[in-house]
Amino acid sequence: MPPSRFRRALAVFAGRCRWPKPGLGTAFLAARILVAFAFPPLVFAHESHPAAPPAAVSTEERAFLEENEAAMTKMMNDMAAKPTGDIDRDFVAMMSPHHQGAIDMAVIELRYGKNEQLRRIAQEIIVDQMQEIAAMKLAIGEPATDTTPAPTQPPSAPNTTVHHHPGMQMDMSTGMKK
After folding, report:
1. In sequence order, which residues have a C-beta less than 8 Å from that of residue 61 and are 6 or more positions away?
2. Mean pLDDT across the stretch 101-120?
């Protein structure tokens, strides 16, 4: 359709339509339409993280899901840093928990995962994210801390057979008991 015919057809169509006049009613209609289109994605996004694991999961899967949910919750809470007025420090304050969350989830994969390729990737994530946290802290003049290896076993109850002596530490829980 040539542009001139299109314009004429549009003008005829527009002349026959009753367009709302600008005002409060139009703004209210626009707001309702915006909410109608914005609301479903918010609902669907919330549903993607179930509050409780399905009943048919194994004990190991349940432990994995609970630890992963705890890691995600901790990460999200820690990322909600109060602004300081220093953009660089605020960036590090938000990104460090984000990277720590990746470390925590990778540790959980090492605890429960069986796929060797994913386990290697999880190990790389731990190393890379720890290095990035250290680099960000150093960039703002803070010391890089916590370079201890990440534990890959679930935390256990305190062991009562650990004996402490000055200058010597002995743990009898590793198969040395008789």
Report:
1. 53, 112
2. 96
Distances (CA, A) of 174 to 28, 150, 161, 177, 178: 70, 19, 10, 8, 11
One-character DSSP codes across 58-86: -HHHHHHHHHHHHHHHHHHHHH-PPP-S-
Q: Quote the CA–CA distance of 36 and 101 in Å, as a whole number.
A: 34
Residues 6+ apart with CB under 8 A from 162: 169, 170, 171, 172, 173
Q: How crowded is the C-beta side of 65, counted as CA atoms within 13 Å?
A: 14
Residue 68 pLDDT greater than 70, yes or no: yes
Q: Tell me the pLDDT band of 39, cut-offs 50, 70 and 90.
A: low
Question: Could you give the CA distance from residue 152 to residue 51 in angstroms, rounded to a whole number?
Answer: 25
CA distance 104 to 73: 11
d(Cα 80, Cα 16) in Å, to the nearest integer? 53
CA proximity to 74, closest of 52, 104, 50, 112: 104
Dig out the tokens for 62 from the structure.
Answer: 């349940």
The predicted model scores a pTM of 0.53
Return the closest-CA partner of residue 60 out of 111, 116, 24, 16.
Answer: 111
Enter the DSSP assignment of 140: T
